[in-house]
Design goal:
homodimer, 241 residues, alpha/beta, 2 domains, three-stranded antiparallel sheet
Chain lengths: 241, 241
């Protein structure tokens, strides 16, 4: 059976303007590879309702799982929850279970529960809450869309809350062999290896270090013995001194 | 006149598998903001022809400029040039001008011009070459799509080659005010400011540092005097000790 597929939607003007360097994509990509869910597409859009709604609909229809990051805080630019509700034609309002969570946590810390803070209890009807052990305000899952915070520490905690409940596949294994030779000379012999192992994927990632050209050849596959065999062949074809 | 719009397409399995952390998106986002071109969407897809072709078509039709990163080297997984040609129904083959560039550079370095290296001279009919001062093999522009390398140093050099030829808009200015107060308490007063400056955009980016919660409030706009005025109001509403 093929692995489940996934897409990610990163939401936020701060990524598109170059103010913030996204790290959530890199984190999620690694975690999904580990559990055997194939991340096949990522989209980044700004804080604009129409674009968010369109992206949620398109990705939800095309992939088994969708993960969103950003736009679920208490301020005016946090519109993700409402957009996801709109994408699935669901009613959204402050929900009692989420309100209770927030109220209890704030009272324990002696913090005033403002109207703005309660915005974070706005959850679409029928959604399941995603636990947030870092700062309480929950994420949520509607159908196949998992809505999570943009702050990296919170995003990572929510990913850890969600993943155990999903059906994974066969984890993708990878090994790397570094070849100290320009990619243009690697390409020919590498093509032979690619043809000899049709079930594996080979990536070639060139680098230059102190003026010396080389490439990291990454072999990926779900069968560890095959990956091992390919790496041994690589070492024979491209021995390092 | 509104600023020109742009999208970016990042191509490569290594990003989606979590092996590599993309840096080209962050670089391009900053450069486009500087020249007044609004980056409105980014997509990341793997090394699969169908997906690349579909994304090039969709983004080229929706935005003024499209920038791609990755998949134009000499190895079997470098299929971007062929996909872009297919997206625009153009013939592609080794082109004399690109071949001459490569041959001269390789000969000067005493490097053999292999068939695989010549793959990098495959350029769609009618495309304009993009200068690559780092490693010679050119990128190219077809219609509104600028096809560039994935290796960050080469990507950055190609961006520098392309941008001066594009029509920019009014650069987006931004200033940041750090508020040492939890976002839930900032949200209410901030809403009033957002309404007072309808031409500016306000972003709120929470952080926690040594257990203290705060947020960076970023004011963005094209009118420097308005941005200044908003920052002064922010400082009045949220004074720091």
């Amino acid at each position: 059976m093929p692995n489940p597929t996934a897409a990610m939607l990163v939401i936020g003007d701060e990524i598109l303007s170059g103010r913030t360097r996204d790290s959530n994509m890199y984190h999620l990509a690694g975690e999904l590879t580990r559990v055997g869910i194939d991340l096949q597409e990522v989209r980044v859009v700004g804080d604009e309702a129409e674009r968010i709604i369109a992206a949620v609909k398109a990705l939800s229809a095309s992939y088994d799982e969708v993960f969103t990051s950003g736009g679920i805080g208490p301020t005016h630019d946090d519109i993700t929850a409402d957009c996801v509700a709109a994408a699935f034609d669901r009613h959204i309002d402050i929900r009692d279970d989420a309100r209770t969570l927030l109220t209890k946590a704030y009272e324990a810390r002696g913090v005033v529960v403002t109207d703005e803070r309660l915005r974070m209890a706005r959850i679409p009807d029928g959604a399941a809450l995603i636990d947030n052990p870092v700062s309480t305000a929950p994420g949520f899952t509607v159908e196949n869309v998992h809505v999570m915070a943009g702050v990296p520490k919170v995003f990572e905690a929510m990913v850890a809350s969600v993943l155990p409940g999903l059906t994974g596949g066969t984890p993708l294994l990878s090994q790397t062999w570094r070849v100290q030779m320009p990619e243009g000379e690697i390409a020919g012999p590498l093509r032979g290896l690619v043809e000899a192992f049709p079930e594996l994927s080979f990536g070639s990632y060139p680098y230059s270090l102190n003026g010396v050209f080389g490439a990291n050849i990454v072999v990926r596959g779900t069968d560890g013995a095959q990956v091992d065999a390919a790496i041994i062949r690589l070492q024979e074809v491209f021995p390092n001194d």
